[in-house]
Design a protein that fits this description.
The complex is a heterodimer. The model of chain A has no long low-confidence stretch (mean pLDDT 95). By secondary structure, chain A is an alpha+beta fold. Chain A is globular, with a radius of gyration of 15 Å. The two termini of chain A are 20 Å apart. Chain A has a 6-stranded mixed sheet. Chain B is an alpha+beta fold. In chain B, 26% of the residues lie in helices and 28% in strands. In chain B, the strands form 7 sheets. Chain B has a 9-stranded antiparallel sheet with strand order 16-22-21-20-19-18-17-26-25. The longest helix of chain B is centred in the last third of the chain and has 15 residues. Chain B is globular, with a radius of gyration of 22 Å. The termini of chain B are close together. The chains are: A alpha+beta, B alpha+beta. The structure holds FE2/S2 (inorganic) cluster and fe (ii) ion.
Chain lengths: 160, 392
């Protein structure tokens, strides 16, 4: 995953690697992918707005994202006891914007979550902003536009 | 008429310090709740800031009844009408919120003004003089009241005034409204979540400080790691009070900042409204084992964007479908309780709500107070529940 990404194929490989950290429960490794000034955003009710004036399901800076991961590993995060099993399917990958330091990529996702014997499908669009950091690409932001972000949603304590 | 559930009398489902498990699981009891509670008392339907301008509307429900709350295009008066066409019952408004002078039913085209009057229908023939158009408007909810911008409605005519119903809870609503220099607004969106459990579990959980140090230990450990200050819960509970304010309402007075919101108290307004942290919370029964919860962050008017943004971030930290607190309540307080309620054998059917009954104090206003680990709030809720459920 290290090295400079240049084309869509590399971006795709990056997204697949990121998803496997989540699906394999390697949350610390996943957290490492984010830059220090990163944010991780799941909008509520609609896809686009100013998070300073509208509530979000999640609007984490790196510190709170770190706390989220810490909590999941604390043995006391009951919302993940039993733990969710997830599979991320990612497709429709499209580079939206690119310069020599960063790349913005849109993708569609389907996340199948199994918890308490119930399988739930979450779907929507990811927008990743990746930035070169030394010789590795890092996630500067990850936005998750759930198609059901204005519905009454279940326990979202797993990582999307 | 005595309402009975098989052989169980409804009034026997609540006894001193205990409630029967059937109140959370029995489909017939749920149906009676919808009629005898939700259709017989004041229920919160909207905040004025959600329908600020002439012609604004919002759709909502009371119990199982879909409603439209509108601000009259001509008079600015607030109307609450049933969202059900007087022809053959189709809902006439589909949006959550909007602005409209008319609601036109898309089935056969009956059209209503936003005060509910029937103003027209396609093809004027086919009805004789016995058909009185004036009586065929959208059905108005008989009682509508506004307290400090909070709009309540009652499907029953036979209720006391809203002021009387809110009673001792009024001054705490006043406090909420006065937290902003120019008042408050519910204009920052909604957290919506759902769980497969009974609605009363969420209402009870709105004031249940007894569970904080257990269910939410990871959250408070996190705060302690960050600030270097560990909350002494045993001491905290001794300093804090819970009060039964009457009419099913109750109050939890916090001792200092728990890191979960701005208000110095949690307030439950019977049956399904709450003020918690920095939010207005509405708990909607969908079925006996399905509940929808809406959290509206309270935005202050007359402060900086930054101050309101900080409120939002703090709120999101604990509350909502991915909040560090809410998700643990969903699992422990709702999913596990619903699972446990399946055990009914050998006298297992009762739930304890007796904690602190031995140390309650009653003041001259009749307000019952005990410490914050006591189950005063649940007892207040079930007192009013039982009163309405058994009312003839
Ligand atoms: S049902 Fe509305 S016009 Fe017929
Ligand atoms: Fe809780």
């Amino acid at each position: 995953m290290n090295g400079v990404l240049i084309d869509r194929k590399d971006v795709e490989a990056f997204l697949i690697d990121e998803a496997s950290y989540l699906n394999d429960g390697k949350f610390s490794e996943w957290l490492e992918l984010f830059t220090e000034d990163a944010w991780y955003w799941i909008p509520s009710n609609k896809d686009n707005y100013d998070p300073n004036t509208h509530v979000s399901i999640i609007y984490d800076n790196k510190e709170r994202l770190g706390e989220r991961v810490w909590r999941l590993q604390s043995g006391l995060a009951y919302g993940q006891e039993p733990q969710s099993r997830t599979r991320h399917l990612i497709s429709n990958i499209k580079v939206l914007d690119q310069d020599d330091q960063s790349i913005t990529v849109s993708s569609n996702f389907m996340i199948v979550e199994l918890r308490r014997s119930i399988q739930t499908i979450y779907s929507g669009r990811f927008e990743h902003k990746l930035r070169i950091n030394g010789n590795a690409w890092k996630i500067a932001s990850k936005k998750i536009e759930l198609i059901n972000n204005n519905e009454f949603i279940g326990n979202l304590s797993f990582l999307l | 008429m005595k309402l009975t559930m098989g052989t169980v009398n409804i009034s026997d489902l609540v006894r001193e310090g205990a409630v029967h498990g059937d109140v959370y699981t029995d489909e017939a009891i749920f149906q009676i709740e919808m009629r005898k509670i939700f259709e017989n008392t004041w229920v919160y339907v909207a905040h004025e800031s959600e329908i600020a301008n002439s012609g604004d509307y919002k759709t909502t429900v009371i119990g199982s009844n879909p409603l439209i709350v509108t601000r009259d295009s001509d008079t600015d008066e607030i109307h609450v009408v049933l969202n059900r066409c007087r022809h053959r019952a189709a809902t006439v408004c589909q949006q959550e919120q909007g602005n409209a002078n008319y609601f036109r039913c898309a089935y056969h085209g009956w059209t209503y003004s936003n005060n509910g009057d029937l103003t027209g229908m396609p093809f004027q023939d086919g009805y004789d003089e016995k058909f009185d158009r004036c009586k065929m408007g959208l059905i108005k909810v008989p009682r509508v009241g506004v307290y400090q911008g909070f709009i309540f409605a009652s499907l029953s005519e036979d209720v006391p005034s809203l002021e009387e119903h809110l009673g001792h809870a009024r001054k705490y609503i006043d406090y909420v409204v006065n937290t902003g220099p120019d008042g408050i607004a519910l204009n920052a969106g909604v957290h919506k979540y759902s769980f497969d459990g009974n609605w009363k579990l969420q209402v009870e959980n709105t004031i249940d400080p007894y569970h904080l140090s257990v269910t939410h230990r990871s959250f408070f450990n996190l705060i302690a790691n960050k600030t270097g200050k560990k909350i002494n819960f045993s001491k905290m509970h001794k300093n804090e009070k819970i009060r039964d304010l009457g009419n099913g309402h109750s109050l939890y007075e916090l001792d200092g900042d728990l890191g979960i919101g701005a208000l110095p108290f949690n307030l439950i307004i019977f049956p399904n409204l709450g003020f918690v942290g920095s939010q207005v919370r509405v708990t909607r029964p969908i079925s006996v084992n399905k509940t929808h919860v809406s959290l509206y962050p309270i935005m202050l008017k007359g402060v900086s964007v930054e101050e309101n943004a900080n409120r939002l971030r703090k709120h999101e930290g604990f509350y909502g479908p991915a909040g560090f607190g809410t998700v643990d309540d969903l699992e422990v307080g709702f999913d596990r309780v619903m699972e446990g309620l399946n055990a009914k054998a050998n006298g297992a059917e009762w739930l304890e709500i007796s904690r602190g009954m031995n140390r309650e104090e009653i003041d001259e206003d009749g307000i019952i107070t005990a410490t914050s680990s006591d189950e005063v709030s649940a007892r207040a809720l079930y007192k009013e529940w039982r009163r309405l459920m058994t009312k003839e």
